[in-house]
Amino acid sequence: DQRSTQPPLRTQTASEEDTAAVRGALRELDALCVGERGCRGAFRAGDAAVLAAVCALEHVAARDADCLPAVLTLRAVSLVNPTLCAPRMVYFVRSTMAHLVARVKKENQPCVLEGARLAAELRATASPSDAPQSLYFAGMWAFWVSEDTALAAQLFRALADVGHVGGLYNLSVSITAGHTGSRDLAQAFELYLKAADCGHLGAAYNLACCYARGDGTAVDQSKAVQYYQRAADAGNCAALYNLAMRCRDGNGIERNPARMLELLQLAADCGDTHAMLLLASCYEF
Length: 285
Description:
Blueprint: H1 16-35, H2 46-62, H3 68-80, H4 87-107, H5 109-125, H6 132-144, H7 149-161, H8 165-177, H9 185-197, H10 201-213, H11 221-233, H12 237-249, H13 257-269, H14 273-284
Helix pairs in contact: 1-2, 1-3, 1-6, 2-3, 3-4, 3-6, 5-6, 6-7, 7-8, 8-9, 9-10, 10-11, 11-12, 12-13, 13-14
């Protein structure tokens, strides 16, 4: 439901400079991941992570957002530990990603071919323990662009086995979607839990949904609220909206209309259209 208006893409051949920039960014991220073992592959060098994201963002903006590999690199940064990035930056990445995948696959075949070549090279040379972000890039490319969900799940599993938080999260998503051959919700729940413990925003939100619905675990509305709150504190729009609805209904938390309005405003501010509509209806009456 979240939409953003993006400028039209120019059809352009991916240059060696593009590829070199992506390789360089991935090498830096690999070094961070390998060097920070506090959460088995989830780097906690906050300033360095944000700097890498900003650099990638500037690279994309300079090319009118038509360098898909740079966007994938930025998305990889945000998913390693989204709490290190500003919520609006994470939202920009996700909305831009959906737009670029649709447009670049259709119009910018040279860039897709170059990205596919780079992804294949990284699959062949990168190891989960020594070059996790390079392998993660290859997994993201397989999932989003090549739409080879089985290959993506295989790469995410290799990363999850060494504790890479992006691998843990994306493997759990792949399992939930049935991309690994079976929907083992209990296994997906355990993977979400590990990723959330490493500070992954999306994992915390999905874990809240698991507790709310009883997917892979017993229903526990109090724990659902706990993880919705964790995700909301990091700026997750959907978590803010869900907490608002719980404050309205008293589900797992005391009814609190004033707090509901505060949460709806925060969700609306970061782009949640459901929150905008409900907030408008509240003020209308």
